[in-house]
Design brief:
Length: 324
Amino acid sequence: MLDHCAFNGDADGLCALQQLRLAGELDAAVRLVSGVKRDIGLLQRVQAGPGERVTVLDIAHEQNRADVARLLGAGARVRYFDHHFAGELPEHPGFESFIDTAADVCTSLLVDRFLTGRFHRWAVAAAFGDGMSGPARALAARHGLAAEEIRELEELGLLLNYNAYGDSLADLHFDPVALATELLPYHDPLDFVRLSPSFARLREGYAADMAVAAALEPWRAGEGASLYKLPEATWARRVSGVLANQLAARDPQRALGLLSARADGDWTFSLRVPANASLEADAFCRGFATGGGRKRAAGINRLPAQELESFARRLLDSYPHAAP
């Protein structure tokens, strides 16, 4: 059987892929398709037919519905692991769903569940990278990981996630498909942390970019939300995801929005909201044509520059009070 795998290029997608490959759940010659974090229409690039299987990791079904139907209609099997809003799923014998949109799961945790914990360290790193420190620490505690091991896995998840952000692959330190190849020989993610020159390169790049970001102040703020604005610069595009998670963790009772300038003059947007926010993050972002995500973290791929002021008002009006 010929295998294809479309995976989100962030920590969650990479670590989900790594677990499945180590478990022998994908053919050694699997055809990989990925891209930058916000390149979620990946199934457009997959062609598969009878006798072939497509595994999808950490990419919302809602935005790939037509291509899932196309692949199933062509005779391929589709296996779907994801935690984003999915919309209506197909009722088809060739479609296998491992989708769970609960706020405390990510795709790698779903794969860890599927594999009954065989490669749980990769799932711990992914959960940290996806901004889910609570579930990450709970899984680490369940398997008796030491404090230093947890710290290293947290840094790995952070850096894998950091690598995925940019307008194009040229913004990234590593193409996610190439990074997946770098990860493959390492059964233990801590060996990658301690031995790989690629990890050292990510660590150095992250430190340099975050040093520039340290002076950032809110562009607009209200009682229940803050909105930051990043300039049109490569470093800014790279830090947007991890910076959003860090700023949200610093002020956990308020919604946190981060606008990032695109090279074409428009903007992208990342949103993080408290667990008990009155409006979930994906619900807010799905109000825009290119928006989507999950309950606590979501985003919009394109906002016209002339709409930023009205957008800022809409965000602050949507979160008028800090969460109790």
